[in-house]
Amino acid sequence: MQLAPKPYVTAGIAIAGASLIAVPPVTPALPSASGVQAPAIQLTGAWEDAFNAGSANLTQLVNNYGLAPGVGFQQSLVNMVGFMQMLINDPASLTAASEQMQDNIKAVFTSWDLINADDATKAATTAFTIAADHNLLLSQIPGFLPPDIDSNLVNTVLDFMSSPLSGVIMGALGPSISPWIALSNSISDGDSFSEIIANMTGAYFNGATLNLNFLLPMINNAGLLPAPMQIDNLEFAFGGLLTGGEVAHKPWEIYDSNGDPALTVPVVGGSMINSLGINLLGVPVLGSLGFEGHAVGPMGAWLSFSELASQLLGANWNVAGDGKDAPTSPPIPPWAGVDFPTVPDDYFGGAGAGEATDFAGGDLWTQVSDAIAAFQWSDLF
């Protein structure tokens, strides 16, 4: 939706800039159904909250990994096995296989930072890095832009802030920053020494919230937003070591032999823009827009990229994960269904020792040389 832009200075720029220093609450919501549940221990107060939050986060991480360990690597191996079978069946298909490999590599490479990524790759990627509410935020930012702002530059910045690389950066920073945020919050709240230690420990594993409302008078009075718009709340979410994150991708569904749901596993992931928490008032037509920040930790960010890579490489396991189609059979991770290449009878022409093999009549090495020469290496970067 395009919101009347008059002489506005970019609300999107203000939001993006503020997001680099802000932080919201970290409380990832997990469904009750899960394959591995860490035990709940009876503790008191802040220690109990820290332990149970860590248990829920660890459950999400372990279940995602357990569905298909190293799924991105799994899918790359499966693809290579498939290409081998293709070449055995028809050596002349080497060019087609090379082109498919190039497309796969390019999709994964460009998804990493979303720079120069095509629309299909962006859509597949942001499902693993952006929560549903933040998709709305991103769709509204272009409507805040005045005509004299370079929209291409802004979109490039937003693409990077939505990328897996930005999520990895946030995940790497979180465990180091979150305990100090928790310390500051605890001192402000007048917590006891035991509560301070519990909150800092919990923040290391589960993340913490930095409230940036003290910046609001400066931001709102700077004329960065078109009247009567103003920011009512500003915060930023840093994850902890175990924070899995929350994204728009539908949870993974595991089904029993009858095709009935047996397990629901929320997908992990996040990004810089996904960590932003902000509430806007005076938004034309809509009135107000509020977004809670969703933090991600280091393991969640890398695990998410592995799952994304498997999809970009052609994985069709758990295809119902996009939320569009109902599952009809239990999902099978890539490596669980791999078939190693076989050769047809007389493939080697009955060649004996010292006899040359024509590989089904094709000049294989010439085709290999041609395929390497034709490979568009510059398109990968």
From TrEMBL:
It comes from the Bacteria. InterPro entries: GjpA-like. This is Outer membrane porin GjpA. The lineage of its organism: Bacteria, Bacillati, Actinomycetota, Actinomycetes, Mycobacteriales.
